Amino acid sequence: MTTNATMIAGLARPDLAEAHRAVQRIYGPQSDGVWADLLSSAGLDGEETGPGAIERMLDAMRAGAPVTALCGEALAIRVASHDRLAQAQALIQDGAAS
């Protein structure tokens, strides 16, 4: 479950915790080392919850090994989609309030 409470169309914006779970799924028992390297590359400690943390992690993931880069790109697409849905929802709500 994501720690980000902002839900758009029933979907939460991917966050650092979700990126960590993705790394665990693709790397299994080696994920601790991969995650530590990614955190170091991103300049994070793993406890961040703000939206900037996932952006920094995605940059680190996309600069990583091919499978890590692909995972980072998939998460980046989800982040961008969520952000665009949030913008559309705001426009619709603003129009309805007018």
From TrEMBL:
This is Uncharacterized protein.
